[in-house]
Amino acid sequence: MGDFFLWAHRGASRQAPENTLAAFVLAEEQGADGIELDVHLSRDGVPVVIHDETLERTTDGHGPVSKRSAVELRRLDAGGWFAPAYRGEPIPTLEAVLDWAGDRLRLNIEIKSAAAGRAVLELLRSRPDCRVLVSSFDHRLLARLREMAADLPLGFLSESRLWRGGLRRAITAGAESFNPREDRISPAMLSACQSAGLAVYPWTVDDPKRLLFLARRGVSGLFTNDPSGARRALAGSRVGG
Ligand code: G3P
Ligand code: MG
Questions:
Q1: What pLDDT is stored for residue 240 in this prediction?
Q2: What is the pLDDT of residue 1?
């Protein structure tokens, strides 16, 4: 269990504004092995790091992300909604986060809009040292990415009770992992993934008891908003060291 993998979900998003560099820096300080982030495409084709399709919840902007240029997005405040100390924290571009992470931290790039797929791939080709796992709920997009990039590590996201279809598509695409909603995990799902040689990374787990339960069940790692709490839980147990 020594290689149990902790993904910081949107960065250390319990203590810093999600999907900002501040949250990513904190996640690294708190001992995350990797960082999950969400990607949309700006109007002018730049992959940007933000969860929602629209700007309202996590920025002082309005309307769809896809209607703003990267320069316009850059001017928005993506931190002030969370706490005054983070006021002025920008929406990062994916390029900036890749450059920040280098080969130190693995990034899980969750593609939220299919339109971003090709641009993400081009960016990754220009950053061969970066360690990534590309994931999406859009399994057709992942299959297309596989056709364009034979070696790209892929993670198939699933939140449906009907997980077997998603798992089949993951196996067909030669995915690295199956990433289920954590309350969908079952012994049948775990054993099907294990038989197929897929890692299992459930999301999103902040409760230490649940984390240890899942770790003992044999998941390969998980997504948490609270990497420091997760590290403490693992350190106080026999799993995950
Ligand atoms: O990738 C795991 C998780 O991030 C999927 O859901 O809505 O938090 O992007 P969401
Ligand atoms: Mg996500």
A1: 58
A2: 43
Cα–Cα distance measured from residue 13 to residue 147, given in angstroms and rounded to the nearest whole number = 33
Residue whose Cα lies nearest atom 3 of ligand 1: it is 203
211: helix, coil or strand? Answer: helix
Q: Is any ligand 1 atom within 6 A of the Cβ of residue 39? A: no
Quick one: tokens of 211? Answer: 């984390």
Active site residues: 9, 51
Secondary structure of residue 162 in the 3-state scheme: coil
| pLDDT, average across residues 142-149 | 98
User: Mean pLDDT throughout 85-102?
Assistant: 98
pLDDT band at residue 78 using 50, 70 and 90 as cut-offs: very high
Instruction: Using DSSP bridges, classify how beta strands 5-9 and 34-41 pair: parallel, antiparallel or unpaired.
Output: parallel
Site of tokens 């992300």: 65
CA 40 to chain centre: 13
Question: Does ligand 1 lie within 6 Å of residue 225's CB atom?
Answer: no
What does pTM read for this prediction? 0.97
Q: Does the Cβ of 223 fall within 6 Å of ligand 1? A: yes
| Cα–ligand 1 centroid distance for 203 (angstroms) | 7
Residue 167: its H or E element: helix 163-172
